[in-house]
Amino acid sequence: MMGDDLLPDSANTQTQTQNSQIDWSQHNTPSYIPTIWGRLYSTKVAVTGKHCWNNAQYPEYYDLIQPEFTLGRALNCSFVMKKDMIKENIIKNVSKQHFIIKRDMSEPLCPAVITDQSYNGTFINGEKLGKGNCRVLDDNDEISVTHPIVKIFIFKDLLKNEQDQVPKEISKKYYISRTLGQGACGLVKLIYDKIKCTKYAMKIIKKSRMTNGQINHLNDPEKIMNEITIMKSVRHPCIISTEEVFDSRDAVYIVLELMQGGELFDRITKQGHLSEQFTRFLFRQMVLAVKYLHSQGITHRDLKPENVLLESQEDDTLIKITDFGLSKFVGEDSFMKTMCGTPLYLAPEVLRANGQRSYGPEVDVWSLGVIFFVCLVGYLPFSADYKDMTLKDQILSGRYRYSQSHWKNISLQGKLLMKRMLTVQVGKRITLNQILNHSWMQDNDVIIRVEKLFSQKQMMSGMTQLTVSSSCEDDENGNTDTVTVIRLVATGKRALSDSYSSCEPIPKKLRVGLSAEKHNDTTSTNSYCSDE
Q1: Neighbour count for residue 148 (Cβ, 10 Å)
Q2: Residue 84 has what pLDDT?
Q3: Are 311 and 337 in contact (CB under 8 A)?
Q4: Measured in Å, how far apart are the chain's first and last C-alpha atoms?
Q5: Fewer Cβ atoms within 10 A, N terminus or C terminus of the chain?
């Protein structure tokens, strides 16, 4: 622990800070006030009965302003270890560049990271890093060189962070960074594993509280524990991986792998729509993931583009299905009766059940059909903004909005697959196995790419164990009226991954865009279509 005599008196902090800049940081005092993001306080720990520092020469503290700080014997280091400053028996074992501390000042609430570049060791709180290894520096961390007892600095983090906003069990292991997304039932934080220096997303779900006699059902403890139970039970390359779960009195903290590619929703809005080849590549992964869930007796019930994440910004990327707050375990002879999910993606039988009658896992195939539709043409098949019919009637009758101008370049097999997924009669709806065997899905290049990604992921992850800690074509039902096309446009970025969203079952806002079809363009007819 750092002694009180090492910390500057608060009344003299400003003066000492200014002196620190003149003595240790820069030769020329800047005309602006720099951001001091950290401070290294000198220790007075003894080695064989003597101080590490020479009494007359050691600096009381060093202010960290530049994004990179180096220490060593080399003259180009930020802090040069000299014989008149530190004991000779210590300095002879210090490397030319012993360690480096970096902080990305362009990234809000990014932690300071120290990397050991020495042969004789850099130690944090007595633990050796090892050459080339790094770790996140925490407030009051002790830095030693050459030997655990040679404690030369104590690090003070001067930037705002939220370590004290979470239970100590979490802040001890993770550095809490910026908010990635916020929704009706909680928020998601970017966090860093202090030892591994890896990024994760942490979903924080506040437990329900009584308000005017009403329970917040979004945060119902039963719903939260259902999500945790499912996360503990599933392991698949295309399902979001859960590192660990912390359960406290007021909230549940779920540590998830971080998806750098954002949501499928955002990829569609950015490109307008996806090519058939790219859709085939992503859709195959989605179907395999849902098939795996069903094999485990789990129905997702809330599949939508916002709940499909991309691992990277590249085209060759894994997808990850997330958000199991509405999922349900299903026994062999049991069905779900709960009315749930996002209305735009709900299957007809869910609406028809109205929370009273039952429906089965086929609801996920319908939702996949809506996602498939949106991927290919960039607008929603069903919407309350289509004034001809209510949203409920559109879904119950399977009358999706069909725009000839948008579908004209889509292959016949793609159109047929879409129709078979958006089939109202459950018994006639295509199954997941039939989707995988459908002619539109037969592409060897796509199959090989997906299998390669799966193999790479399984090799890298090793499938670690989760731990839980307490504290269409026109048909006879169609029409040829001019159609209003609902295009997906992200209004107000709600990030997931480095764009990660929370678990609210409320769809992202959509902007209504009128499709201005020319009346003399007889090849661009827009209509309702039905599977009947």
Answers
A1: 15
A2: 78
A3: no
A4: 75
A5: N
Rg of the chain (C-alpha set):
29
Q: Looking at the DSSP assignment, which residues form a beta bridge with residue 242?
A: 256
Query: Domain 4-157, what architecture?
Result: Sandwich (2.60)
Tokens of 420: 């078979």
Does the structure show a pLDDT above 50 at 51?
Answer: yes
Residue 153 has what pLDDT? Answer: 92
163-257 has the same fold as 4-157: no
pLDDT tier, 518 (very low <50, low <70, confident <90, very high otherwise): very low
C-beta of residue 153 within 8 angstroms of C-beta of residue 141: no
DSSP state string for 447-508? HHHHHHHHHHHHHHHTTPPPEEEE-----TT------EEEE---SS---BTTTB-----PPP
Closest C-alpha to 302, from 347, 352, 348? 347
Catalytic hit among 63, 138, 141, 302: 302
| Closest C-alpha to 240, from 268, 203, 271, 274 | 203
Please state which of the four CATH numbers 1.10.340.30, 3.40.50.300, 1.10.510.10, 3.20.20.70 is assigned to the domain occupying 276-461+472-514.
1.10.510.10
State both tokens at 508.
């992202």
Q: Which superfamily does 163-257 belong to?
A: Phosphorylase Kinase; domain 1 (3.30.200.20)
pLDDT value, residue 322: 84
Q: List the structure tokens of 407.
A: 């579908």
Q: What is the pLDDT of residues 434-491, one digit of tens each?
A: 999 999 999 999 999 999 999 888 776 654 444 455 554 444 334 333 444 555 555 4
220: annotated active-site residue? no
Identify whether the C-beta of residue 106 lies closer than 8 Å to the C-beta of residue 113: no
Distance CA 322, CA 240 (A): 5
Q: What percent helix, strand, coil does the chain show, rounded to 5? A: 30, 25, 45
Does residue 120 sit in helix, strand or coil?
Answer: coil
Contact criterion met (CB below 8 Å) for 91 and 73 = yes
Say how far apart CA 368 and CA 388 lie, in whole Å.
25
Task: Tell me, rounded to whole angstroms, the distance of Cα 297 from its chain centroid.
Answer: 26
Going by their DSSP bridges, the two strands 251-257 and 242-247 should be labelled as antiparallel
| C-alpha dihedral sign at 59, 64, 70, 76 | negative
Is residue 187 a contact partner of residue 79, using CB atoms and an 8 Å limit?
Answer: no
Say how far apart CA 256 and CA 82 lie, in whole Å: 45
By residue count, the chain amounts to 532
Measuring CA to CA, which residue among 36, 50, 45, 41 is closest to residue 6? 41
